Predict the 3D structure of the following.
Amino acid sequence: MLRNPGRIDLDSIADPLLTDGNVLLKVRMVGFCGSDLNSFRGLNPLVTYPRILGHEVSATVVEDRGTDSPLKAGTNVAVSPYTSCGACPSCRRGRRNACQFNQTLGVQRDGALTEFIALPREKLYPANLTLKELCLVEPLTVGFHAVARGRVTDRDTVAVWGCGGVGLGVVAAASSRGARTICIDVDEEKLELARIAGAKVTVNSKREALHERLLEITGGRGPDVAIEAIGTAATFRAAVEEVAFTGRVVYIGYAKEPVSYETRLFVQKELDVLGSRNAQPEDFGAVIKFLESGMFPVDHAISLTVPLEQAGDALRSWSDDPARFKKIMVCVS
Ligand SMILES: [Zn+2]
Ligand SMILES: [Zn+2]
């Protein structure tokens, strides 16, 4: 349990209540991403303390009392960690991923870093995948959703800013749609991983002149789709500046400060500027199909695997040196 920023301890909590609408699950693995690191460091504005972390989850069904298509005990599942109210404008439009009142496991409500959890059947995705792969489903869906928002096709060249966990999902999704992907980052290791995950071209924007490189790669036009997965003012602006005329810009990163724009470019280029948040059920389906194909470099994407007792220490060493890890997985049982 994360008591306060920087303070993690192990605690006993009551077993979850199994109701008719819920499925009792034994938690197997939990993944940590940058947002857990931010919660640990007190830099995640959405989290309150104390909080049990854990929104990237693989679990095994213990009991499902639901009447229609109950899951068999022993079935391994991936988990969608979001809630949706059903009544807000997003929910009414069928876009529950962007529910106005969403509560994510491990952020606005207690997460899965515990022995047992109970969740509604519709949040569970059984799949023929390993426990590690099931744990990677949720982080990959975020990138898959952004690519769906950008309506990426095999005729597109897609530029991706940021090759962390989210950016990798973008690369995987765009490549699996047959698009050509250009990955932009300042970290050589992340760029290498992006190439393994399917990026055709990588640009180290610390060492290379990004604008010139993008023009060179795209025959002077700029990328058809620009996807921002970092959240800085500079990369927010770069996406609009570099994208081709009549292109699509998709934002996944959360900027921590207001961003000033040359808004003329929105009009002059007649851009589609889109936000992308969390993921829809069809994105979960697409990621599972993609992982089942075995095309994703699962072991390259995970930096460290630790037992539950070492979860706190792992977050502490990540916090001391954020560049050291990409993704940490915790084996719960
Ligand atoms: Zn995450
Ligand atoms: Zn809602």
Q: What stands out?
A: The two ends are 17 Å apart (CA to CA). Residues 252 and 276 are 5 Å apart (CA to CA). Residues 84-85, 88, 90-91, 99-101 surround zinc ion (ligand 2) (CB under 6 Å). The first strand starts at residue 2 and ends at 4.
